[in-house]
Specification:
Number of strands: 18
Mean pLDDT: 93
Bound molecules: adenosine-5'-diphosphate
Radius of gyration: 22 Å
CATH superfamily of the largest domain: FAD/NAD(P)-binding domain
Helix content: 25-40%
Length: 475
């Protein structure tokens, strides 16, 4: 939170150099314009600037970050050095296969290959700008394998902090409170700029001599757009999303002829806070040494399953909720979002007790069944096999105090969006390129298919953000 405030202040100060009010709109000229200041937009802006371009980035909110800042920060990449040191077997081919199969073979083979081939290189690129990752590699909920990297600090904000500094060093001009409205095309259909609304509702215009990169994120915060594709996702459905994720980029790009893919696939995060929908307020995100139980104290699914399967299974349980159970060895003092576990217990987000029976009483779970379930799980850990077909194993659950975190699904990620090619150029419905227009991040559709693996979004936005920025700069 502190870094949110600092960033807001920093950029509020940076915004004062905006074009003064004028009766006639004077277009500001640059080479590359990036729309959206989440992870994908910042990566694109830095990559374009690295390649020698003059860049302006427009962000409609008063701070950078988007959904990226809210993310847990887990980044999937096959990393022989870190995984090898821990004895984890993996390969880029395995990452590719799991990503394709996890999306029911409806993902884009070429784009998934680019994503899985380049994930580690983009992680190293972030490290080259000072971002630090832990040596630990974990399997996260819906990630299906132990290949998720964890930022050393600040979950999703670590990416935004790192890239914001890099963008500033490279002279990217960042305008906050500036909402892109319409793409401008020339007589030949080239995208040459964008109109925007700035502070005090001022109309602005920006011209790009090279290209525009759309990185405005998903549409999960637009009730109108999301219910069009999934009528269950009404205004009251909990959501992990920031209010800026309203699909603006899809609407803008469609107006200049962009095609879309996968709009009907809206991912629920299976394990969000039941009240707020936040992905925060939990003890652990890793699955190796945890189980999910229902109110009856029983496991009901393999915890290393896909997000859509997990979400569906939880919604079928009593009251549509479950509890993540872990022991003292998995609970640090602070969780991955920087929240103190003791505070979470005090605030009622998490239950903690010295015995499993007490834990069950506190959380409203059947006590005898919970003890039985945990005993059975501990035997399964020794055998690394259970009746659910779980493949990811870690510690037993036997060292008190024990923790129970109530969780329920929340709207998370829109897999649909504009179609792109291997260069991140936006494609028309007939598959031809819209000249001068690139896209990266959650605004892009069709990469992952029906379901995205947990931990693949950050790799996706960094890999394709860089590709979009590099190619935009090369126009
Ligand atoms: P990604 O993960 O693809 O980078 P994020 O949600 O992290 O997506 O970031 C997208 C950013 O784009 C958010 O900060 C959001 O406020 C911003 N944004 C959305 N619509 C517009 C718009 N019309 N103009 C400028 N910025 C926008």
């Amino acid at each position: 939170m502190v870094s949110v405030i600092i960033m807001t202040m920093l950029f509020a100060a940076g915004c004062q150099d905006k074009t003064p009010a004028a009766s006639k709109v004077e277009a500001e000229e640059t080479e590359v314009i990036v729309l959206g200041g989440g992870g994908a937009g910042l990566a694109a802006a830095v990559a374009a600037a690295e390649n020698g371009s003059k860049v302006i980035l427009l962000e409609k909110m008063s701070m950078l970050g988007g959904n990226t800042a809210r993310a847990g920060g887990y980044y999937n990449a096959v990393d022989p050095q870190r995984q090898g040191a821990l004895g984890i077997e993996d390969s880029v081919e395995h990452h590719y296969q799991q990503t394709i199969e996890g999306g029911d073979n409806e993902g884009h083979p070429v784009l998934v290959k680019i994503l899985t081939d380049n994930a580690l290189d983009s992680l190293k690129w972030l490290e080259s700008y000072g971002m630090e990752f832990q040596d630990r590699i974990v399997a996260i909920q819906g990630g299906m394998w132990e290949r998720s990297h964890i930022p050393a600090t600040s979950s999703g904000f670590g990416y935004i902090d790192t890239l914001t500094k890099a963008a500033e060093e490279k002279g990217v001009r960042i305008l906050l409170d500036t909402k892109a409205e319409e793409l401008i095309t020339d007589d030949n259909g080239w995208v040459v700029g964008v109109t925007a609304t700035g502070e005090d509702n001022k109309t602005l215009e920006f011209r790009a001599s090279k290209a525009v990169v759309v990185a405005t994120g998903g549409f999960a915060a637009s009730v109108e757009m999301r219910t069009k594709y999934d009528p269950r996702l009404t205004a009251n459905f909990p959501s992990t999303n920031n209010p800026g994720a309203t699909g603006d980029g899809v609407v803008m790009a469609e107006k200049v002829g962009a095609g879309t893919a996968g709009m009907e696939y809206i991912q629920l995060l299976p394990l969000a806070d039941p009240k707020s929908g936040s992905s925060q307020h939990k003890v652990v995100t890793e699955i190796q040494s945890t189980i999910m139980v229902n109110k009856e104290g029983k496991r009901f699914v393999n915890e290393d399953n896909r997000r859509d399967v997990l979400a569906g299974a939880i919604m079928d349980q009593t009251d549509g909720i479950c509890f993540i159970i872990n022991d003292a060895r998995e609970a640090g003092e602070v969780n991955n979002y920087g929240e103190k576990v003791a505070d979470l217990v005090e605030q009622g987000y998490v239950y903690r007790a010295d015995t499993l029976e007490e834990l069950a009483e506190l959380s409203g779970i059947d006590p005898a069944a919970l003890v039985q379930t945990v005993n059975k799980f501990n035997k399964d850990v020794a055998a690394e096999s259970d009746s659910f077909g779980r493949k990811v194993w870690g510690n037993t659950i036997e060292v008190g105090p024990f923790y129970a975190t109530p969780r329920a699904p929340a709207i998370h990620h829109t897999m649909g969006g504009v179609t792109i090619n291997h260069k991140a150029q936006v494609l028309k419905t007939d598959g031809s390129v819209i000249p001068g227009l690139y896209a990266a991040g959650e605004v892009v559709g069709g990469i992952h298919g029906t379901n995205r693996l947990g931990g693949n979004a950050l790799a996706d936005i960094m890999v394709f953000g860089r590709i979009a920025g590099e190619n935009a700069a090369a126009e």
